[in-house]
Amino acid sequence: GIQVEQSPPDLILQEGANSTLRCNFSDSVNNLQWFHQNPWGQLINLFYIPSGTKQNGRLSATTVATERYSLLYISSSQTTDSGVYFCAVHTDSWGKLQFGAGTQVVVTP
Amino acid sequence: NAGVTQTPKFQVLKTGQSMTLQCAQDMNHNSMYWYRQDPGMGLRLIYYSASEGTTDKGEVPNGYNVSRLNKREFSLRLESAAPSQTSVYFCASSGVTGVRNQPQHFGDGTRLSIL
């Protein structure tokens, strides 16, 4: 099956810093989603991005499907950005998701 | 607008007990999914239902059964719970437009502990 690798596994940021999270996948995919799992365990949809670039406030994402990677940018980080960020790829036409192991982000005041 | 609703939110079982986790969505989605999340890991697919009346195995189906009761509801059953099934269970749903999948939307999860 498709392998999804996220880096770095852990990230500690000071409030106000910028960062980039990376997701590599081993084969062509139908689509890709980024999620934020908050400290309460809820999975929040951030981006649905098969290719190109999207922005939502301080967050943006870029997927380069031909090179099999996606990037998530966090700018001017806030403590509420803490949590785990997951990349997940749609592996077939039925929409099944293959998740990466996640990047644990801690933003300190 | 509830989205995907899972019940219960928390449950403790003894080894060998049975239990059904409930999931309902109000977005008129065709596809529904059950995942489990173990500590420090991403989610893994247990079963999915591409449309009402169909179900298929995912990556980790052993020890589970599912029922797509109608378009809105998709339940997950543990017939004889084992400690290895201690996990957080997530239900999700999605629609399909043309040939491209739409994003999956997740419920808040059920934290299940088996003693």
Key words describing this protein structure:
heterodimer, A: 109 residues, mainly beta, 6-stranded mixed β-sheet, 5-stranded antiparallel β-sheet, 11 strands, 0% helix, B: 115 residues, 7-stranded mixed β-sheet, 13 strands, globular
What does this structure look like?
Chain A has 109 residues and is mostly beta strands. Chain A contains no helices and 11 strands. The N and C termini of chain A lie far apart (40 Å). The model of chain A has no long low-confidence stretch (mean pLDDT 94). Chain B is mainly β and 115 residues long. Chain B is built from no helices and 13 strands. Chain B starts with a strand and ends with a strand. At the A-B interface, strand 4, strand 5, strand 9 and strand 10 of A face strand 4, strand 5, strand 9, strand 11 and strand 12 of B.
Helix-strand blueprint:
The complex is a heterodimer of chains A (109) and B (115).
Chain A: E1 4-7, E2 10-14, E3 19-25, E4 31-37, E5 43-48, E6 52-56, E7 59-64, E8 69-74, E9 83-90, E10 97-99, E11 103-108
Parallel strand pairs in A: 2-11
Antiparallel strand pairs in A: 1-3, 3-8, 4-5, 4-9, 6-7, 7-8, 9-10, 9-11
Chain B: E1 4-7, E2 10-13, E3 19-25, E4 31-37, E5 43-49, E6 56-57, E7 64-68, E8 74-78, E9 87-94, E10 96-97, E11 100-101, E12 105-106, E13 110-114
Parallel strand pairs in B: 2-13
Antiparallel strand pairs in B: 1-3, 3-8, 4-5, 4-9, 5-6, 7-8, 9-12, 9-13, 10-11
